[in-house]
Each structure stands twice: as structure tokens, then as C-alpha cells.
Design goal:
- By secondary structure, the protein is α/β, with parallel strands linked by helices.
- The chain is 49% helix and 12% strand.
- The chain has two domains: 146 residues, no CATH class; 336 residues, 3-Layer(aba) Sandwich (Rossmann fold).
- β1, α5 and β2 form a beta-alpha-beta unit.
- α1 runs antiparallel to α2, α8 runs parallel beside α9 and α10 packs parallel to α13.
């Protein structure tokens, strides 16, 4: 359902003003036509008095007609672009709204003017109705044609323009489905480019939202990226095969999706005059370490997933110039409930096991992880968009907070606070890796700190499970690795060959 708090009232006001102008201009032209027709065909003894009579009628009736039209348009959802007000039904919706408005106006005018029957001559009424129909429909048709066939750019440099419209690549995913809603709440216009492998449930309810647009397609294909980038002010690139196991299933598709497509998106952004690009990377680029690492530390990937992220970061930073400003966000260990749930993340998975199985096994409980809730990840991306470009251009930021660095044993005890009956079993294995990350830079530059605690995140997942929103946490749709492994062949057939403007990217170069 469209929420009025999400509407861009400046855009709505402009449409209202345009419709008021059209309807009043239509009535003026109709009255003038009637005046000259009467003047030339009838014997008018006093033209000035005759004109004054028509002027009085115009002053009396035009505000009423404009008010009725705007009211009917608002009630029928034309200004808020409800679901039926789509391109397919736009002409019908407008024609219906105008017809209803004139019918109501005719009824009101009849009772107001009674017993004179009707103060507005029939010829004026019919001509005004026809002109309003042509004006309202034609005005919107011209606007849509211009938007579809021309790119209108400001005289300001791209880096100086205010960001209004954002493309989110991968906007239907775990982080993206949360971020898209937060962007809309923050009054951004949002376009999503996503193939929606896991279905469209995560963003289906946004269809019909006045600030939302979906392009379902493969972001590895240059034609889809060009289409999606057109007219946007910034790009947030979340699209990727995420997680070490999922990336290992098919290395070729992983390289195409996680690395080559990033290079493509950067090229298209530069060619299209899009100056801002935010890229979702990962703190796993540092590898496991007992020491605190920051954005200047040596990178030490231990998986293909981390390697593709490092290579993507390098190509983005190399592409940066005065007109193109990439920013890299290295995300901590994500957790939390999403519109596209995942249970291959440690906090989410252990919470689900605690609820359904009443038992969780904590391996190597003294290991540390820099946890960050997806709502905080979303907030970090929006803060990057809002920040002056000089502060974030060409920079990398670790996303998280010191207060959210927890041991795996802490996770188990936190879950026990919510699911008191759970049996927490500590065990050990050979994997004793720790991840310790510095968040000084994002705290200092942007004033960012995490707001959602580990306890709050576990509680929201537990509540979602209690509400029955997930009945089988082991279903492959909630696990990237399982899904890619089970449906890998179908995915490869759907993706088809690489379509990257004839270029082949080699991460080794």
C-alpha cells in the first residue's frame, strides 16, 4: 500500500498546478470561443456588458471546476500513482477522472444555478471538457516521451548535483530489500535492477509505489545496465554471489557476476555521467587476523569471494576521476531479519536452530566477529549518499562498531536470553580464525555507530519465526550455497553467455 509519508509532495504539487492551469485555460478558451461565436452570429447591443457577463461566469465557475478536478484526481489515485495508474491504464484513468470531474461539476452547477438550469452554456461545457481531456493526457504523454527519449542533465557538474534518484543493483536481496525501503522512506526515488533468482516476494509490495521502479534483468549484460543507469544520480552496487561456499560452486559465474559486472557498471556510469557509485565489499578482504586491521592494512583474501571483492575495489578506484567518485563499504558480519531472509549467516542460523531444534552448537566460542545489523548497513549507505562528495570519494570504509564485535560464545548466550530452553553446546575444531576490524574511520568521518544491538537482532528473528514467516529454515531459498548448488545448472542456463560489450575481464591482470 502506498504510504502518503513517502510521497514527494513537491512533485505532486507541480502536477496539481499543471492540472489547474489546464482546466482553467480550457474554460477560458471555451468561454472566449463562445463569446466570439455569439458576437458574430447574434446581435449584441453592448459588447462590453456581454463580455462582463461572461467574465463573471468565468470567475465564478473556473475555481470550482479546478477544485473538483483536483479532488477527483486525488481520490482516484492519479497523483499518488496507485497500481491501476500504470502506463497501460494511464489514458483510461485520466479520461475517467476528467469525465467524473465534469459530471460532478455539471451536477453542482445545475443545483447552484437553479432555476436558471445552467449558468455554463453547453457549448462552453463540451469544449472545455474536450480541451481538458487533450491537455491533461497530452501533457503527461509529452513528459513521458521526453523522459524516455532524452536525458536531461543539469548545468552543474555531476559531482555537485543533489542526489534524487538512486539505482540499487541487487535491490531484491538480503540487504537490498531493506535498503530500498529505507531510501524510499528518506524520500529518494529508487530504481532496482535485479534478476530476482529467489523470487520477487522481497519487493513485490513496492509495486505501485510512486518512487519505486523495478527492472528485472541481468546486471552482467550491458544493455540492461545502460537502461537501468539512465537518468539516475547515483548507483549502489549490491549485486553479487555472496558467501565463500556459494562462490565456490561455479567459479566462472562468480567471476562474471562479482568482478566483471562491477567493471561493466563502472564503465556505464562514467559513460552516462553518473558520478556517485557505492560498492558493497566485505571485511573478509582482510582475512583472519589476531591484530586490529583498518582500511590501510594489507589485504589477505582466503576465498574466491573475498578475492573478487578486492579485484572489484581495485578497478573501481582506478576508474575514479573528477567526474566519477566510487566509494567502497567493507561490511562486517551481517545479521538480522530481512524481506529476503537468509539462514546461512551465523546469528540468523543459530537463532533458527534454537527456535526449531532447541539446540545449538557453538564452535570455537572465543572467536571474534564484527557483527553489523542490516538496518545499520542500510543506514551507512544512506549516510554515504548524504555526505559531501569530498569526504567519501575514492575512499574505503569498514562498516560496523567496536561495541558490536562479539565472540561466538556471546552469540550463544544472547540467543539463550531469548530462547531460554535452548541447549548451548560448546565444541572446538581446527578453525580458530578471528576477525578484528577498526571502525575509527567511519566513526570519525561520518559519525556512524551501530544502533541495533545483537540482542535486538536475535529477538526480531525469533519473533519472525514465532509469527510463522518461515517454517523451514533449511530450505535452499534461505541459503545462498544450497540454492546455487541445487539450482546451479538452471541458473547457468538462465544467465546464458557473458554479455559485456565484447570485453572479457581477467582478474589476474
Amino acid at each position: 500500500m502506498t504510504r502518503f509519508t513517502n510521497l514527494r509532495w513537491s512533485a505532486v504539487l507541480l502536477r496539481v498546478m499543471a492540472d489547474v492551469f489546464v482546466v482553467m485555460a480550457s474554460l477560458i478558451v471555451a468561454f472566449l470561443f463562445r463569446f466570439f461565436l455569439a458576437f458574430w452570429t447574434l446581435s449584441v447591443e453592448d459588447p462590453a456588458e456581454f463580455m462582463q457577463h461572461y467574465s463573471d461566469d468565468l470567475v465564478m465557475w473556473s475555481p470550482l471546476l479546478a477544485l473538483i478536478l483536483v479532488g477527483i484526481f486525488a481520490i482516484t489515485g492519479i497523483y499518488t500513482k496507485k497500481r491501476f495508474y500504470t502506463r497501460r491504464f494511464k489514458v483510461f484513468a485520466l479520461a475517467q477522472g476528467i469525465s467524473i470531474s465534469y459530471a460532478v461539476f455539471l451536477l453542482v452547477a445545475y443545483f447552484v444555478a437553479y432555476p436558471d438550469y445552467l449558468a455554463v452554456p453547453r457549448s462552453v461545457f463540451l469544449l472545455s471538457y474536450a480541451l481538458t481531456m487533450v491537455g491533461c493526457i497530452g501533457m503527461r504523454g509529452i513528459k513521458e516521451y521526453v523522459e524516455n527519449h532524452f536525458t536531461i542533465q543539469s548545468n552543474k557538474l555531476p559531482s555537485e548535483r543533489k542526489i534524487k534518484k538512486v539505482l540499487v543493483i541487487g535491490g531484491g536481496g538480503y540487504i537490498g530489500s531493506v535498503l530500498v525501503r529505507d531510501l524510499l522512506e528518506a524520500q529518494y526515488q529508487v530504481r532496482v535492477l535485479d534478476l530476482l533468482f529467489f523470487g520477487d516476494e522481497s519487493i513485490r509490495e513496492l509495486n505501485g509505489h510512486p518512487g519505486f521502479e523495478l527492472i528485472r534483468g541481468d546486471f552482467r549484460h550491458v544493455d540492461m545496465v545502460v537502461k537501468a543507469v539512465k537518468g539516475v544520480d547515483a548507483v549502489i552496487h549490491l549485486g553479487a554471489i555472496v558467501g565463500d561456499p556459494a562462490c565456490a560452486v561455479d567459479e566462472e559465474i562468480t567471476l562474471q557476476t562479482n568482478y566483471a559486472a562491477t567493471a561493466l557498471v563502472a564503465e556505464v556510469c562514467k559513460g552516462s555521467g553518473v558520478s556517485r557509485m557505492l560498492f558493497a565489499s566485505t571485511c573478509s578482504v582482510y582475512g583472519a587476523t589476531e591484530h586490529l586491521v583498518d582500511e590501510k592494512s594489507e589485504l589477505n583474501p582466503v576465498s574466491l569471494y573475498a578475492t573478487t571483492k578486492i579485484d572489484s575495489e581495485k578497478i573501481l578506484m582506478a576508474a575514479g576521476n573528477d567526474d566519477f567518485h566510487p566509494t567502497v563499504l567493507r561490511l562486517g558480519t551481517a545479521y538480522g531479519w530481512s524481506h529476503r531472509p537468509r539462514f546461512d549467516l551465523v546469528v540468523n542460523l543459530l537463532t533458527a536452530k534454537a527456535y526449531f531444534d532447541k539446540k545449538i552448537v557453538i564452535y570455537n566460542g572465543e572467536q571474534w566477529r564484527p557483527f553489523v545489523h542490516i538496518k545499520d548497513i542500510s543506514r551507512a549507505f544512506i549516510m554515504m549518499l548524504d555526505a559531501p562528495i569530498s569526504m567519501v570519494s575514492g575512499e574505503s570504509f569498514n562498516v560496523g562498531s567496536y561495541g558490536m564485535t562479539h565472540s561466538l560464545a556471546d552469540v550463544g548466550e544472547t540467543i539463550r536470553q531469548i530462547v531460554s530452553s535452548v541447549d548451548v553446546v560448546p565444541e572446538t575444531n581446527s578453525d580458530l580464525r578471528n576477525y578484528r576490524v577498526s571502525f575509527d574511520k567511519i566513526h570519525t568521518v561520518l559519525g556512524f555507530t551501530s544502533q541495533v544491538s545483537l540482542l535486538d537482532g536475535v529477538e526480531e528473528i525469533h519473533q519472525a519465526l514465532k509469527d510463522g514467516r518461515v517454517t523451514d529454515y533449511a530450505d535452499p531459498v534461505y541459503h545462498n550455497h544450497k540454492f546455487v548448488a541445487e539450482y546451479g545448472e538452471a541458473i547457468r542456463m538462465q544467465l546464458g553467455p557473458r554479455l559485456l560489450a565484447g570485453q572479457v575481464y581477467d582478474p589476474a591482470k
